[in-house]
Design goal:
Layout: E1 2-7, E2 13-19, E3 22-29, H1 34-44, E4 54-58, H2 64-81, E5 85-88, H3 90-95, E6 101-103, E7 105-108, E8 111-114, E9 118-120, E10 132-134, H4 136-140, H5 142-147, H6 164-170
Parallel strand pairs: 1-4, 4-5, 6-10
Antiparallel strand pairs: 1-2, 2-3, 7-8, 8-9
Length: about 200
């Protein structure tokens, strides 16, 4: 089965082609470049979109806009190529990256997203003993987390990026794209405004 996987919920987007559990290629850029990355992955593997069997998309939590980009791309590709889709939490993908991994995604507004999923202030976070905090929130709040007993890998570590190849390995049942829902955890920053 040839799977296209991608996650755009954080500032670094990842995309990967995975076949039979083997990663054929993986890229990292910005969420806005995910379609170009997908095209480049397929071209490098000598494949076409019609060769894909399924899509796995990161569902967040993370950036509201980034998460929406990923879901929109997944839905558009699934509709146009008649492919099934599975969603995987960005936190779960980060947690699968290493033993004792404790994913921490920057939630902005002085908060982080952690497994639960929950949005909490870094200074209020209960870090399990021996945890390795990873993710963009762990990088941003390194000093606070280390002060609470956590280990945080260097900023350049691959552990801080929700790798798309791990999404493919974690994918549950595949289904219709519209059934894959985002994990926002909290309301968006913007309020809807309707003119009177």
């Amino acid at each position: 089965m040839l799977i296209l996987a991608f996650d755009t919920a954080t500032d670094i987007a990842t995309s990967a082609l995975v076949a039979g559990g083997l990663t054929l290629g993986e890229r990292r850029t910005r969420p806005q470049s995910v379609l170009a990355d997908i095209d480049a992955l397929l071209a490098a593997a000598g494949l076409a979109p019609a060769d894909l069997d399924a899509i796995v998309v990161g569902t967040g939590p993370g950036s509201f806009t980034g998460t929406r980009i990923g879901l929109a791309v997944a839905r558009g590709l699934a509709l146009s190529l008649d492919l099934p889709v599975a969603g995987v939490s960005t936190l779960d993908a980060l947690a699968a990256a290493a033993p004792r991994a404790f994913p921490v995604v920057d939630a902005r507004r002085g908060e982080v997203f952690v497994l639960g999923p929950l949005a909490v202030r870094p200074g209020e976070l209960d870090v399990p003993p021996g945890s390795v905090c990873i993710g963009d929130g762990a990088r941003r709040y390194r000093d606070v987390l280390v002060g609470r007993g956590a280990d945080v890998p260097p900023d350049a570590s691959d552990l801080h990026v929700p790798r798309a190849s791990l999404h493919a390995a974690l994918a549950g049942p595949f289904g219709a794209a519209e059934e894959v829902l985002p994990l926002y955890v909290r309301a968006p920053d913007a309020d809807a405004w309707v003119p009177a």
